[in-house]
UniProtKB/TrEMBL annotation:
One of its GO terms (biological process) is carboxylic acid metabolic process. This is Homocitrate synthase. Its EC number is 2.3.3.14. It catalyses: acetyl-CoA + 2-oxoglutarate + H2O = (2R)-homocitrate + CoA + H(+). Gene3D superfamilies: 1.10.238.260, Aldolase class I (3.20.20.70).
Length: 384
């Protein structure tokens, strides 16, 4: 598999999540974090919105973060001028290619789409910008027209084509076919930009990459329109562990970046959020904890430290003896097999009463309670 480049659009599509707004300083901070993480390109926002949006993009450009900064534009020359005014080195020039959008949203025809895209692309290239031509709603477009669009984009100087699964209705097998066909017939670099309406955004991005796409458009925590986009943390780790393609991203910073974006966006990370959720390395079931204690690879795809997390062994209703013994060892208490068995019974009963796993303090309490009962029994037997 050839090299894959991460294009992060947390500051553009991520902020388009209904109800989400980043403060300007948060946009700047997120850009700094993404640069430190090692992404290839940051889509920083939409310059033609003006005001704060433009100010934040200008600030990000001035930081010289050592990564490409892209401004998002409609296929409108005035939009591209606003991007140039911000100091970006790259522009996204977006226009719909599906008939649904062309007829009902733009109220134009295919020729108008081609001409608008070509004019805006030529204009941007004249200003020495890197250009991604974005085919919005590509996945619902007539493939022959999409091929024509991609060919004209290439001829006009586009550096890549963004294939947008705008409403997230593709599945990996068909997306593979689409991407292969565009690459074979046009020979243009492709960026995958997928949405998660059916929970397939990451899978679709991976399928596109397998077909030869070189760029993965992602957002932190999978923020984005409706159900969101492919999540940066998922795509990076899946590429590393499923496709054995390490992009050199500083994955140990992922947890910190995801938490920052969660706070800035007001969208909390679920405990079991893939890759970075607080509990994705928490084990409670007896068979799992026993395996993990013997060799963590038995039930973990990668080590928690790799993404800035820590492993947790929880003791609760589903625990087994080995986990109990290991937990008490942490407190320098060596349980006999009988004691471990007895504590396990008490753990199960208390867990069901409380409907949760137990805190370490509660375990020590159970241990002390068991010992006191034993002493009482011995005293009774000895008539003391
Ligand atoms: C799928 C996506 O994520 S696309 C990105 C979507 N992001 C956003 O919309 C967030 C930022 N958007 C905005 O701030 C505003 O919508 C602006 C500045 C872009 C435009 O604002 P307005 O001029 O007030 O127009 P409004 O938003 O009401 O309508 C969009 C107009 O752009 C046109 N348009 C939409 N997409 C494109 C395109 N890719 N290329 C050219 N024109 C387009 C629409 O047809 C409509 O034109 P009309 O007014 O002639 O009917
Ligand atoms: O990236 C684009 O230009 C298109 C907008 C988008 O986010 C999408 O189509 O999903």
């Amino acid at each position: 598999m050839s090299n894959v480049y991460i294009v992060d659009t947390t500051l553009r599509d991520g902020e388009q999540t209904a109800g989400v707004v980043f403060a300007n300083e948060e946009k700047v901070q997120i850009a700094k974090m993404l640069a430190e993480l090692g992404v290839y390109q940051i889509e920083a926002g939409i310059p033609t919105m003006g005001g704060d949006e433009k100010e934040a993009i200008k600030k990000i450009c001035k930081l010289n973060l050592g990564v490409s900064i892209m401004g998002w534009n409609r296929a409108v020359i005035k939009d591209v001028e606003e991007s140039i005014d911000c100091g970006v080195d790259a522009v996204a020039i977006s226009i719909s290619t599906s008939d649904i959008h062309i007829k009902h949203k733009l109220k134009k025809d295919r020729d108008w789409v081609l001409k608008s895209m070509v004019d805006a692309t030529r204009f941007a290239k004249k200003h020495n910008l890197y250009v991604s031509v974005n085919a919005e709603d590509a996945s619902r477009s007539d493939m022959d027209f999409l091929i024509k669009f991609a060919k004209e984009a290439k001829e006009a100087g586009a550096d890549r084509l963004r294939y947008c699964d705008t409403v997230g209705m593709m599945e990996p097998f068909s997306i593979y076919e689409h991407i292969r066909r565009i690459i074979d017939e046009v020979g243009i670099d492709i960026e995958m930009h997928t949405h998660n309406d059916f929970g397939l955004a990451t899978a679709n991005t991976l399928a596109g990459i397998k077909a030869g796409a070189k760029y993965a458009g992602v957002t932190v925590n999978g923020l984005g329109e409706r159900a969101g986009n492919a999540a940066l943390e998922e795509v990076v780790m899946a590429l590393k562990y499923i496709y054995k393609n390490d992009l050199g991203i500083k994955t140990n910073l992922l947890k910190e970046v995801c938490e920052y974006v969660a706070k800035a966006s007001g969208r909390v990370l679920p405990l079991s959020k893939t890759i970075v959720g607080h509990n994705v390395f928490a084990h409670e079931s007896g068979i799992h904890t026993d395996g993990v204690l013997k060799d963590s690879k038995t039930y973990e795809s990668f080590s928690p430290e790799e993404v800035g997390l820590q492993r947790q062994i929880l003791i609760g209703k589903h625990s087994g003896r080995n986990a109990i013994v290991a937990k008490f060892k942490e407190y320098d208490i060596d349980l006999t097999p009988e004691q471990a068995e007895e504590i396990l019974k008490r753990v199960r009963s208390l867990s069901v009463q409380l409907k949760r796993s137990l805190f370490d303090k509660e375990l020590i309490y159970l241990y002390n309670e068991m010992r006191e009962e034993k002493i009482k029994d011995v005293n009774l037997q000895n008539n003391i």
